[in-house]
TrEMBL record:
GO terms for molecular function: metalloendopeptidase activity. Residues 31-75 form the LysM domain. This is LysM domain-containing protein. InterPro entries: Cell_wall_metabolism_enzyme, Dup_hybrid_motif, LysM, LysM_dom_sf, M23ase_b-sheet_dom. It comes from Ventosimonas gracilis. GO terms for cellular component: cell division site; cell outer membrane. Belongs to the E.coli NlpD/Haemophilus LppB family.
Length: 263
């Protein structure tokens, strides 16, 4: 339901400028982060203002510093169970070939004829849909796309890696409410979603989620209209500029593409 620095050297003798603007990322000292596909210890540390070696020591992660999807990275001082990195699979060596003496030839018996049966074909699993009552409630809402851009990740019901869709765009691009509703959450406490918003639509059974924003433009308890700009697209809590968008019914994530208009 609800993821490199270039160093250059110059050999000329021209004097360096007396001042330079350096973007300093404040060090995050609270909360935690859930590792997503494509994350590295270095990228997580960089986005949260940490030295990667210090972050590894803080989370008791030893060499070779491998991470697993779903692993918890803490920034505060709460106790953390020891996490062991995933070890690389060992190559299995094939057993030595054994030679055996051939038994004396015996007259072969005719094999009974066996009719071949056609191979069974397996159909792909159906797309996850909510119960009939949930489908009716979701279809009754006039949904609209929360932003413009390229769809770069689709809903994944089976493996749970993506409980919504990801839309790529530019930093600062408008993020809009997908339907009329009430803002029930605004902040960065939804781990793995960065600066995020949750909007309730009609009843508390249907909500939409907007993650990885650069800046939130609405507050909790505020009523919003469909198409109203509620945030600026960003890369908080992830490695690229994008919007992570979810639709949930009774806390169960559903495929947003089933309800958003075709485009």
């Amino acid at each position: 339901m609800f993821s490199a620095f270039w160093l250059s050297a110059c050999t000329t003798t021209s004097r360096a400028p007396t001042s330079a603007k350096v973007r300093v990322i404040p060090k995050v000292m609270h909360g935690q982060y859930v590792v997503r596909r494509g994350d590295t210890l270095y990228s997580i540390a960089r986005r949260h203002g940490w030295d990667w070696k210090a972050l590894a020591a803080h989370n008791r992660i030893g060499s070779p510093y491998r991470l697993k999807v779903g692993q918890i990275i803490r920034f505060d001082n709460r106790p953390l169970p020891r996490q062991t990195p995933a070890s690389a699979p060992r190559r299995s060596t094939p057993p030595p070939r054994q030679t055996a003496s051939k038994p004396p030839a015996t007259p072969s018996k005719p094999k009974p004829s066996v009719s071949r049966q056609p191979a069974k074909t397996t159909n792909p699993p159906p797309r996850q849909t909510p119960p009939a009552a949930g489908s009716a409630a979701l279809s009754a809402i006039q949904w609209r796309w929360p932003t413009d851009g390229t769809l770069i990740a689709r809903f994944a019901a089976n493996n749970g890696l993506n409980k919504g869709i990801d839309i790529a765009g530019k930093a600062g691009q408008p993020v809009k409410a997908a339907a009329d509703g009430l803002v029930t959450y605004a902040g960065n406490g939804l781990y793995g979603n960065g600066e995020a918003l949750v909007i309730k639509h009609g009843t508390s059974l249907v909500v939409s989620v907007y993650g990885h924003n650069r800046r939130l433009l609405v507050k909790e308890g505020q009523q919003v209209k469909a198409g109203q700009v509620i945030a600026e697209m960003g890369a908080s809590g992830t490695d690229r500029v994008k919007l992570h968008f979810e639709i949930r019914y009774q806390s169960q994530a559903v495929d947003p593409l089933l309800y958003l208009p075709k485009r």
